[in-house]
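Section handout 9: paired folding examples.
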Amino acid sequence: MKKLLILAASLFAFATAASAQDAALGVWQTEVDDGAYAHITIAPCGAAVCGVISRTFNADGEYQSENIGKTLVIDMVPQGGGAYEGSVWRPSNNKIYIGKMDVDGNALRLRGCVAGGLLCSSQNWVRVG
């Protein structure tokens, strides 16, 4: 009986973590940055979520960027209430920053921070899929 209770508690914890991630899962369109924008596909990666560049666009339309397939949103762990913490890669300068993400319905706010999170730059993304 004790093993059954432990198994049930473990399954509940896994289900809770999975449902907390659901808010961020899907395809998101970034803001224009350095003349281009992208579609980021966010999917589970272990106990976190990760976002991979799936399509890229510029003023001429869709193009095949060298960054397609690269991970932009790295190991974002759900914190509750649509908040996530992890890392963010910025392709234009090839740097990784402390990442924070807030999801509310079809809106996502992504922040890349330095100095322990004191100085942040942010983008607002919209769900496209």
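Moving on to protein 2 of 2.
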Amino acid sequence: MKNVLIAIVVLGLIAFLYYRNNPKVDFKEDTVDGIHFQKGNWQQALDLAKKENKVVFLDIYATWCGPCKQLKKYTFADKSAGDFFNTNFVNMALDGEQEEGAVLAQKFGIEAYPTLMFVTPEGELITKSPGFRTASDLINLGQQILDTRN
């Protein structure tokens, strides 16, 4: 009986950790307070960046990727990240294994998901950063990009 209880607790812990690290997300939907991603194509994002004199923040993700899901669920949904990125950047998120996202992943040499990039309105890469980031860490990275552009 004791072994059964231990097995149940261990399995419960494994399930909890799995679902915590792989939350269910809809990559096409934005939260109200978080970062709002453009719904058009890459060229439209570049055109908007030119018009607004902003840098493009590009998230290349994969739908099966745990850290990508965590970014979407927690970091991109954060109000402070939303306030900062919606004000200072044109935001775009693309699946690196589908259509336009796959083309850009190849163009920019993406080797891991997620990869967060900052791109000029002319389409030139400023910097790329693979992996998960907290909201405050992402804001700090964005601020560094703004500081170097001014």
